[in-house]
Amino acid sequence: SGEIRVLHITSGDVWGGAEVQLRAMIRELTSFGDVSVRVLLFNYGLTEERLREIGVKVKVLDENVRSAQGLIRDITTTIREWQPDIVHTHGYKECILGTVACRLQANTPCLRTVHGSPETSPRIWQLHKRVIRWADNVALRRQQRVIAVSQELCERLGKQLGRHLVVAIDNGIDPEEIVHGSHRPGVVRRKSGVVQVGVVGRLVSVKRVDIFLRVCQILH
Question: How far, rounded to the nearest angstrom, does the alpha carbon of residue 15 sit from its chain's CA centroid?
Fold first, then answer.
């Protein structure tokens, strides 16, 4: 039929930047008409709700009642039954489990979007976290492509994995969602008519609050 089938796998435990990007990407992909998308989540919650709102077929494999082996088994079953052309993962755990499942199911092509760098390194005594970090690194090297959401992250991953494997695709926005979406933020104005702007986030360097302050200075 010429249809491209894409299976996305992500945790779905929070509704954050990566999840917003996933929703926008899926919405754009399905608009082409020749791309069919399904999503596997490891948790119920707001991500599930927001994806169902745009008509995406979502299946939740609740990680609270499944072991890692159980998740791999269920992912493998989904791949075998739906036969996606590619599996696209969005987190370290999803990448590890999804890559194993792809290998078990006829080496289904897989890729990973890395939405950010780890902010901390496991301590020497945190053996479990160190093993997970090692397994994620192995899984990354088994991808057809690794997508970085910024050029800086692309260069960092390129040094680690090889520049041939990593490609940068900047995060995008859905203009229609901003203008007409039900979740768009309101604009607060003072009586003087001055527009108020703000930033919400953790005060850590990765959030680049310094850029926000520079923009405010320029606008002022």
Answer: 11
